[in-house]
Design goal:
By secondary structure, this protein is α+β, with helices and mostly antiparallel strands. Helices cover 26% and strands 40% of the residues. It contains three helices and eleven strands. A five-stranded mixed sheet has the order 7-10-11-9-8, covered by helices on one side. Strands 3-4-5-6 form a four-stranded antiparallel sheet. It has a two-stranded antiparallel ribbon with strand order 1-2. 19% of the residues are buried.
């Protein structure tokens, strides 16, 4: 979709959802966990099964989840609050999910590649992605 002369960028990265689901199912049967625990575990798996990042002419939007609960967590970052951005490689110690990383936040579902944003308030945001160059280019185009 084009708005203000900028072609919107949207990309969804899938997490290791099915590996986690399969492993969880195996653990469930081996450990004989109560059936009551299955619902919350399944919701967490669906909630963190994918990360969708969109860039338009005014903001970057980060959404977690797979259908039917995509977007249960949504973070919006106004482009006018982004001072700088770059591609980075995360340490395996940072993990996946939503993590506080000292002076900012990491949003990641899989892998080590990310785009780091320096914000005007001094904070940083890292967005995990399997196509860091394309995301960085979309942010650069939108910030022009």
């Amino acid at each position: 979709m084009e708005r203000d002369g900028f072609l919107r960028y949207t990309h969804t990265q899938r997490g290791s959802l099915w590996l986690i689901v399969g492993g969880s199912a195996l653990l469930f049967f081996l450990a004989r966990v109560a059936v009551v625990a299955v619902g919350p575990v399944l919701l967490l798996l669906l909630g963190f099964g994918a990360l969708t990042v969109s860039v338009d002419a005014s903001e970057i939007t980060i959404r977690f989840g797979v259908r039917p609960i995509r977007g249960w967590f949504r973070k919006r970052i106004a482009l006018d609050t982004v001072k700088d951005h770059r591609t980075v490689r995360n340490s395996w110690l940072l993990g996946q999910g939503i993590r506080y990383i000292g002076n900012g936040w990491l949003y990641n579902v899989a892998g080590f590649e990310a785009v780091e944003l320096d914000l005007t308030n001094g904070r940083r945001v890292r967005i995990g992605t399997d196509e860091p160059e394309a995301l960085a280019a979309a942010i650069a185009r939108a910030r022009r």
